[in-house]
Amino acid sequence: MSKNRLGKARRIQADKNYIEVTGKIFALLEYFVERSGDAKSVPFVEIAAAVPFARTTVHRILYSLEKLGYIEKDGTRARYELGTKFFELTGPAIHFRRLQSVSKSVMQNLLLRFGETINLGVLDDGRVTYIDVLQSPSALRIAAVPGERNPVHSTSLGKAMLAFMPEKQVEAILDRHPLIKRTPRTITQKKHFLEHLASVRESCIALDMEENLTGVVCVAAPIHDQSGRVVAGISISGPASRMDPKLARIQQELKEAAQSITRMLSPSVVRESVAPMATVGPGPAVMISAEAARQPRSKPRP
Length: 302
Fold this sequence. Notes:
Elements: H1 3-12, H2 20-35, E1 42-43, H3 44-50, H4 55-68, E2 71-73, E3 79-82, H5 84-114, E4 117-124, E5 127-134, E6 149-150, H6 156-162, H7 167-176, H8 190-203, E7 206-209, E8 216-224, E9 230-239, H9 240-243, H10 247-265, H11 277-280, H12 290-293
Helix pairs in contact: 5-10
């Protein structure tokens, strides 16, 4: 334990509301995190020597954390390492930061290629939340800001992620968030929307053809983790007048960009297993023209 951390712990202990054992527990967990890159498991004698607690206290904390699943004991030997439950607890935050990190260069490349706004988003409580945005350099641009939220049914990011989620989960989200009409082109009938998601699964591309905001077109592709679970989406958005002529190119390159991010998130996954279409609805990649995408939505597209 560093002197600074030890000094901080001692200052906190002066607070009558402070629970001293909490500091000891986290001091041990922090020690394991610091050591995680050096060794798979750490002997008890080394742990006890590294923290300013009695050996019996260290042993009891390790025993308790082991019972809870946050620490694992290496067989019968007195060696310990972080347990699976610890990584389940911290995994989402670690994954969130890694997602932003590995996506940055891909997003920058797309911005250079097309000159339109690039968005990275996730689902949060049934709504699209933007976690990173690279704005178009054009004077005329439409751009969200990180932290902004939008409906799932009217955005390409929302469709791209919903299309690869379990049906029951999708139904639950749609029941909680009605399909409100945002523009004359918004799909507001649940049956039609679910059929629309089937076409998104086939192409691995989702389109928002002025469905969320009049005059704005957005294209999105899903990003998956190593298990094939959709974890995010990446999109390109801009004025319809600029997006329409390059829509086919954007779809193809955006899908490749999403697959590239997926591979970086899960380096052991080969290209063929990146998109889990085999389990959710296989189909050929279909590029949709601007003219076809703009057909009236009174009937679902086949």
